[in-house]
C-alpha cells in the first residue's frame, strides 16, 4: 500500500515538465543534484536549534536584557480562591457585570429571557460576588491580576525576539554571501537557465538545510512560545514555508528558493530588533527601526515578491514549457505567502501611520497588553476623589474605615 502511494505521489508527470524526470537529477560526471532524502537532515538540525536556543536565551539574551535595562513589572499574586479559580479555568477569564449587559436588551427581551439565560447573566461578577462574599470591585481586581499572571513576562518576549533576531541576521548575511556572485540575483530569468539539471552548490545545500531546520524548530516551539493574536497565521506561515522549501528542493527549484528565502530574511531581523528595543523601553530606537522595517517589508513583500519573483515563477516559465501540477503547487504556496504578506502589511501600515501622524510609540497589536492592577475608578478612590463602598485591600474588605489604607 505504501509503495503504491509512493509511486503515485512521485509520478514524474506531476512534478516535472513533459520530457523530464527523476533520471535527469541523478548524480553524474561530478555533478551533484538535490535529493528528497536530503531533507531528513533538517530534523536533527531542528533539534539542535532548540538546544542552542535554550543556551542562547539563558547566557546571551538574558544578560543582554539586563544590559539594555529591561525592567520587569512586578505582578501581584492573586489571593487563592477555589471558586474564582474554577470559574476562571472552566467558564471565562472575563466575567461581565450584569449592569453592563442590561442596557443592550429591551424591556420586552429582558422579561422574556429564559431561566437558562438569566442564570448565565447572573453567573458573572454579581453572582461571584454573592458566592464569595467579596465586593464586585474585589472580584474584578482578582480576575485582572489572574489574567496578568497568565501573560508571558517581558523577559520571555525579549529572549524569543533576540533568538529570532540572531538567526535572521546571520541567515541574511549567509544568503548574501551565497548569492552575491550569482547571476540570478540580478537577472531573475537566470533561475530557470538549464532547469531542471541545476548543479547543487555547497552554499545552497547549507542555506536550505539551516532555513528548513530553523522553521521546523519554530513549528515545534509554537506551543511554548508567546501566543499572539495571529497565532493561526503563524502556523499557516510556518507550514507553508516548510512545504515550499521542501518542494523546491525536491524538484530542483533551488535558485528560486534561495532568492525567496533571502528576500524574506532581509526584513525579519529588523522587526525582531525593534521588538527587543520595545521590550527594553528604548522607544525612539524601536520606532525608527520599525519604520525602516516597514519600508523594507513593503518593498520586498508587496512589490518585489509579487511583481518580480512571482512573475518569474508564474508567467515566465510557461514560455519555456507547458504548465504541470508542480508548477501550480509551487505558485499556490507562493500565493499563500502573499496573502499573509498583505495581512501583516495592513497591521504594519496601521502602526506606522499611527506613529507618523501622532508621534506615538509603536506597540505590537498582536500581543495582549498588560492590564493595570486597578481600574480608573479605583485609582480615583485611592486618591480620595471618590468614596464609595469603602476601601478594599488585596481582595479583602477593610471593615474599619478609620484605619490607614495600605498601598496596593
UniProtKB/TrEMBL annotation:
- Enzymatic reactions: sphinganine + octadecanoyl-CoA = N-(octadecanoyl)-sphinganine + CoA + H(+)
Q: What SUPFAM superfamilies does its record include?
A: Homeodomain-like
User: One GO term of the cellular component aspect?
Assistant: endoplasmic reticulum membrane
Pathway involvement of the protein, from the record: Lipid metabolism; sphingolipid metabolism; Sphingolipid metabolism
Q: Where is the TLC domain?
A: 156-357
Q: What ranges does the record give for the region Disordered, renumbered to this chain? A: 362-408
Q: Signal peptide position in this chain? A: none
Q: Name the GO terms of the biological process aspect.
A: ceramide biosynthetic process
Q: Does the keyword Transmembrane apply?
A: yes
Give the Gene Ontology MF terms in alphabetical order.
DNA binding; sphingosine N-acyltransferase activity
Coiled-coil intervals, chain numbering: none
Q: Which residues bind DNA?
A: 128-154
Keyword Kinase among UniProt keywords: no
InterPro entries in UniProt: HD, Homeodomain-like_sf, Lag1/Lac1-like, TLC-dom
Q: Sorted alphabetically, which Gene3D superfamilies does this protein's record hold? A: Homeodomain-like
TM spans (from-to): 39-56, 165-185, 205-223, 285-307, 327-353
CDD domains associated with the record: homeodomain
What top-level branch of life does the organism fall under? Eukaryota
Q: By its UniProt entry, which PANTHER family does this protein fall under? A: CERAMIDE SYNTHASE 2, LONGEVITY ASSURANCE FACTOR 1 LAG1
Name of the protein described by the UniProt record: Ceramide synthase 2-like isoform X2
Q: Which gene encodes it?
A: LOC113060050
